[in-house]
Design a protein that fits this description.
By secondary structure, this protein is an all-alpha fold. It folds into 2 domains: about 10-305, Hypothetical protein af1432 (Orthogonal Bundle), CATH 1.10.3210.10; about 310-385, no CATH class. Helices cover about 60% and strands about 0% of the residues. It has 17 helices and 2 strands. It has a two-stranded antiparallel sheet. The longest helix has about 30 residues, at about 235-265. The chain is globular and about 65 Å long.
């Protein structure tokens, strides 16, 4: 049973290119399946989340992280009476626009673009992927996803200004996204905050005592576990603690979002959209714990000296490859050379979407953003001498 404020697939705003209905899958289920079968989705398996494989092949990559986000999102959606098919599709597509080398790669690619007067945003790039780059159907370019999934790609984690992004005008930028989309940014954080503690300890870059000394929600759960399992090995005590932190975050998000919706009196999807703020949220107490946990990870893991070398590699590799192709666009693959035909420097290259000129930096950015970690290393060795 869907809540009154849930998105109903039969009321979808539809696809850009109308298609016949499927005999046994609704439109959001078809969107989910199209994402899963996309080349860009498969490439997530070889893109870094936080740790490269030099640490261990047990750690999360961008694909396993995405699967974890989908699992958490489905669970919460079911408890809130939301459309779990839409939520699952949004969770599976939410990271499809990320470049190689994790957040370090995104920062490096954005820096390279800004040197030419542009920028890189993985949400906007994800929309380009599903609208244009995936070529699987004879009748249209892209995946022809429903409006609700495309809107969620854009709005799940960020509010874009209509004046700055006129190309996104169709996505109701003046309104809030549905709760199905609002959830994704929060479930994404639940997934990576807990997973990064797990992988950080496994990599011996974090210790249980170090986490407990800085993160109150973790310390509280650890004390409970040590009372219950005083003789358990430390690794199992850590696992039990992390499980309780995870459950605390998920349970609070469910209960607090339900309470906020009730308090706001938003009994319809339209009311959710027109509410002045997003209603999916943690309680004040747990939000403070989430911030504390996130701050700890930034200070002790993401910017740790042990990972500094890999960040420097990402900046160097992306920066030098970008500069090479700006100078030598004929070294791009044929499909990209065709897009950049007769282009030298930031001149116009092609049209995407209709009426929007694309410069050479954007074409190079598109190429790099689609690469896996192993492939970009190969390209660097080929064109920049390793």
């Amino acid at each position: 049973m869907l809540a009154d404020y849930a998105v109903r697939v039969e009321q979808s705003r539809g696809r850009r290119h109308p298609e016949p209905t499927h005999p046994y899958r609704n439109d959001f289920q078809r969107d989910r399946d199209r994402v899963v079968h996309a080349r860009a989705f498969r490439r997530l398996e070889a893109k870094t989340q936080v740790f490269t494989r030099r640490y261990s092949d047990h750690f999360r990559n961008r694909l396993t992280h995405t699967i974890e986000v989908a699992q958490i999102s489905r669970t919460i959606a079911a408890q809130l009476g939301l459309n779990s098919d839409l939520v699952e599709a949004l969770a599976l597509v939410h990271d499809i626009g990320h470049p190689p080398f994790g957040h370090a790669g995104e920062k490096a690619l954005d820096a390279a673009m800004r040197r030419h007067g542009f920028s890189f945003d993985h949400n906007l790039h994800a929309l380009r992927i599903v609208e244009d780059f995936e070529l699987r159907y004879a009748a249209f370019r892209g995946l022809n996803l429903t409006f609700e999934v495309r809107e969620g790609i854009i709005k799940h984690s960020h509010d874009y200004d209509a004046g700055e992004h006129p190309e996104l005008a169709e996505y109701l930028l003046e309104l809030r996204p549905p709760l199905e989309a609002q959830l994704i940014d929060l479930t994404d954080e639940i997934a990576y905050n807990t997973a990064d503690l797990d992988d950080g300890c496994e990599a011996h870059l974090l210790t249980i005592e170090q986490i407990a000394a800085s993160v109150a929600i973790f310390d509280c759960c650890l004390q409970e576990v040590r009372r219950l399992y005083p003789s358990a090995p430390e690794k199992l005590q850590f696992n039990e603690t992390l499980k309780r932190v995870f459950d605390r975050l998920v349970s609070d998000l469910i209960s607090n979002t339900r309470a906020r919706v009730a308090e706001a009196g938003t009994h319809s999807l339209e009311a959710i959209r027109r509410h002045p703020e997003r209603l999916a949220a943690f309680s004040r107490e747990v939000e403070e714990g989430r911030r504390q946990l996130k701050d700890f990870l930034y200070e002790n893991l993401y910017f740790s000296p042990a990972l500094e070398g890999e960040k420097e590699d990402a900046e160097r590799i992306i920066g030098e490859l970008f500069a090479h192709w700006m100078e030598e666009p004929e070294d791009l693959p044929r499909s990209y050379r065709e897009k950049a035909a007769q282009v030298r420097g930031p001149q116009r290259a092609r049209i995407w979407p209709a009426g929007v000129e694309e410069p050479l930096p954007r074409i190079i950015c598109d190429y790099i953003a689609g690469m896996t970690d192993p492939f970009i290393y190969q390209q660097y060795e080929k064109y920049c001498g390793g």
